[in-house]
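Working notes for the structural subgroup meeting. M.R. asked for a predicted model of this chain before we commit to crystallization trials. I am recording the input and output together here so anyone reviewing the notebook later can reproduce the run.

Input as submitted:
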Amino acid sequence: MKIKDMTIISLFIALMITGAFIKFPFPFIELTFQAFFAIMAGLILGYKKGISVTLLYLLLGLFGLPVFSKGGGISYVLIPSFGFIISFIPGSFMAGFLYQKRKWNKYIAALVGMLFIYLIGIPYFYGILRLYLNSNVAFLTLLISFIPYLIKDLLLAILGGYLLRYFRFLNLEQ
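Returned structure, recorded in token form:
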């Protein structure tokens, strides 16, 4: 791997960490911007480097560095929102793969990547609530409560597609 690649991957990891600490509190979870940076990593860097960014971010947090919105460490896997952190990997992959390899429209690729994050994150959230925290919240109730977050992230995915034009000069795709 080239030094340029390592530098840009490190930059995106730093952006994801920063995105974790830009918080807007809401019921259940806080609005953060890691998902936005995960999708941008896939679109800008391509699916392989995008996976590197999101996987390294996940590993840094699991090894105890406080890079997640509420800290870090292996016990973080029992926090309901951890499913979203896991889902950054396939979300970034899908956005980058669809845009880079399949030549999909950048907006559609970003939206599909973001939807993958929710398709994995919400069931994980529900599973931890039910199985570990013994909550009796209904899945439909939980699903409805995520609508504001989904709207925010879909709008950010569209913004990410728009901002992509400003990163072409970097020639970072694989």
